[in-house]
Specification:
With 138 residues, the protein is of the alpha/beta class. The chain has 5 helices and 5 strands, in the order βαβαβαβαβα.
């Protein structure tokens, strides 16, 4: 193996969803790997149930909103934009890690997430979440 292609000759079977696997496949191929893509999941939005629609329509009544994955953030922000041309500015947004935060930041939103430890425990340890009494959470 050469220093410029550390994965030269390595075959990798990539099973991530097609949209998520594309960048990873390109990165691995640039490192010399032969990538075989067979997506084992397809992620697509569902038609929101009435309860979800009600929550989205009443988004301005929430104080804290948590996004649990990049897919949830993309799909959620798309659904929110159907009722809210401008995201309610008072909402504090939270994610577990920087990847999901980047989706929200790309929309101009301020996001808090733990600097270390991408887990729900690390998220809940953030100073902003130490006194949630009286806050509405979505």
């Amino acid at each position: 193996m050469s220093a410029s292609a550390p994965l030269s000759g390595t075959a990798i079977w990539l099973t991530r969803p097609a949209t998520q696997g594309k960048f990873l496949a390109q990165t691995l191929e640039a490192l010399g790997a032969r990538v075989l893509q067979l997506p084992m999941l397809q992620i697509r939005p569902l038609i929101p149930l009435q309860d979800c629609k009600r929550k989205l329509k009443n988004l301005d009544q929430y104080d804290l909103v948590f996004y649990i994955s990049t897919n949830a953030a993309m799909i959620g922000l798309d659904a929110i934009s159907q009722w809210w041309p401008q995201y309610p500015p008072h909402i504090q947004n939270f994610t577990v890690g920087p990847g999901t935060a980047a989706v929200l930041q790309a929309q101009g939103l301020v996001v808090s997430y733990p600097d270390t430890g991408m887990s729900s425990e690390a998220l809940l340890a953030l100073p902003q979440l130490q006194d949630p009494a009286g806050k509405k959470v979505l």
